[in-house]
Write a structure and sequence with these properties.
By secondary structure, the chain is α+β, with helices and mostly antiparallel strands. The chain contains 9 helices and 12 strands.
Length: 354
Amino acid sequence: MKALRTALLAAALALLASPVIAQDAPTWSLAIHGGAGVIERDSLTPEQDAAYRAALHRALAAGQAILAAGGSSMDAVQAAIEIMEDDPLFNAGRGAVFTAAGRNELDAAVMNGTDRTAGAVAGLTTTRHPIAAARAVMERSPHVMLIGPGADAFAGSVGLEQVDPSFFFTERRWQGLERELRRQNLPVPQRPANAPGPQASADMPAPPLNERKFGTVGAVAVDNQGRLAAGTSTGGMTAKRWGRVGDVPVIGAGTYASNADGCAVSATGSGEYFIRATVARDICTRTSTGSTVQQAADAEIADVGSIGGDGGVIVMSPRGEAAFAMNTSGMYRGSVSSAAAAAVAIYADEQVAP
């Protein structure tokens, strides 16, 4: 027995003396989201579930191609978001929800973590890629935010693609507007000029996402030079009125990035609450004082919930650690890095594989 104890002790000491092999931190990393809300397994068909997962993988692949080739985090964020802006599944760009007046009014923002430069746009109606317009405001103007016709005019003046407003039209979003306006006992406007005729059968049936409140796309990334970036794009809230603008283009509310503070953030949810809680900036304050990105994300979403807000966030650290937090039943999301293959998730109880 004494010999056995001696052998076990020797083995334990040898194990403690052995070098610990730690997994290398990724040299680049990307995380995305496609909106948070009431998204449950029994309300998405298998075809809808598969379609969303495929769309998230396409967005990740666009950003991954840039980061793997040594490109910048901002380029990767823009590329991933543009894929989602062109996908009718998401409430951004083509597929955005309608205002009460029957228009698509689009908002977006970007921010660099290294120098905290930022750009934002609100109320776009003719610029194909709002995220590109937000970046142009940051890089090619002396301003941080432009709105409405002036923002579209600026985007056109710097060569960004302009489209007829009907480009953004989808039948299922229009039907969603009609339902919401009837619920509020408000008049239904005429169909937009040049919009295609009713074609509900040609579009995927509306998913259970509460599109009156939720539906935003976003990305956060760090590149192989350690530069953080964040971007967010949205069509806002179904049947919004009076020029309503949510949190997405408000720097520090729906979008923020700071290498000095150790995080990049993109949010999705009930914008009024995210503005009041300055969600994105608060998360970076938490990381700057020692919280991990996951701890900061969880704590901030809990705070939003305490004042009545719903939604979620994605957060990236300078070391490539991605965090996801939500107080809803689902959030379309995914991640990829130099150390891990692309993975996506939809429901709250799913894990995005590290």
